[in-house]
Amino acid sequence: MILITSSDNEYQATKRIKQGKARLAAPFTELAAWISDRWHVIVLNVIYDHRNNLHAPRIQVILEHETEAQRFRDGFNFDSRKQQEVAAKFRQMVSGDSCQYDLTGLFVVFSAFATIAREEADSKITESEIDALKKRIGNPDLWVISRFFGHVTFMFHTDAQAKEYAAKGKQSEYAQKYFEILKPHDEFGYIAQDSFIVAFDSKQNFDDKYQSNWYYFYK
């Protein structure tokens, strides 16, 4: 898999590199440097895996930012030309009689570290911090503050209330208040106050449209 959650081994390994607690080893140091120079991006980690022959050998290139990862995509898919170019470069680097890597059908994927790091920062906010924020806001029309993979939604009891408070500019005010408890958990400084937003919705919409089911709401 590519990076999906902060519990992924690939994410934790990359985090240690970002923290300065680990370093890439050859030949991945050289491959990361080549990719960085070739496309002017920041490569934090390069991982080779081939788990129990269940899939073809794979190179995972972990870039720092989502904007960099998007440069290796073609719509919803990876850019096949860039995949092939990275695979060819790796083969060239490790080819020889002493090659220890299976290169048959080598598959290259790209993902972004910062995206998951932002989600991890949000996941570190405790429920007691959320309860304290809700009390500090002190709005009886606010039902819950819902969080899902870094997305924050202030849920009011009715649609009318959600629209009313949005019209009063409360969305930016509540985003600021939430940002204040989020920022201390932002280890790598990826979350900027001026771009941080929250959504407004309602229990009424949650019940009527999504059958009171968080799975359907966030699907």
Mean pLDDT: 94
Q: Which topology of the largest domain does CATH recognise?
A: GMP Synthetase, Chain A, domain 3
Q: Roughly how many Å is the radius of gyration?
A: 22 Å
Number of strands: 8
In short:
This protein has 219 residues and is of the alpha/beta class. The protein folds into 2 domains: 9-118, GMP Synthetase, Chain A, domain 3 (2-Layer Sandwich), CATH 3.30.300; 124-218.
Topology diagram in text:
Elements: H1 9-18, H2 28-39, E1 43-49, E2 58-63, H3 66-70, E3 73-74, E4 77-78, H4 80-94, E5 107-112, H5 113-123, H6 127-137, E6 142-148, E7 151-156, H7 159-167, H8 170-182, E8 199-202, H9 203-210, H10 214-218
Parallel strand pairs: 2-5, 7-8
Antiparallel strand pairs: 1-2, 3-4, 6-7
Give a description of the structure.
With 219 residues, this protein is α/β, with parallel strands linked by helices. It has two domains: 9-118, GMP Synthetase, Chain A, domain 3, CATH 3.30.300; 124-218. The protein has ten helices and eight strands. The strands form three sheets. It has a three-stranded mixed β-sheet, sandwiched between helices. Strands 6-7-8 form a three-stranded mixed β-sheet. A hairpin with an 8-residue loop joins strand 1 (43-49) and strand 2 (58-63). The two termini are 20 Å apart.
Key phrases:
three-stranded mixed beta sheet; 10 helices; 8 strands; 45% helix; 219 residues; alpha/beta; elongated; GMP Synthetase, Chain A, domain 3; 2 domains
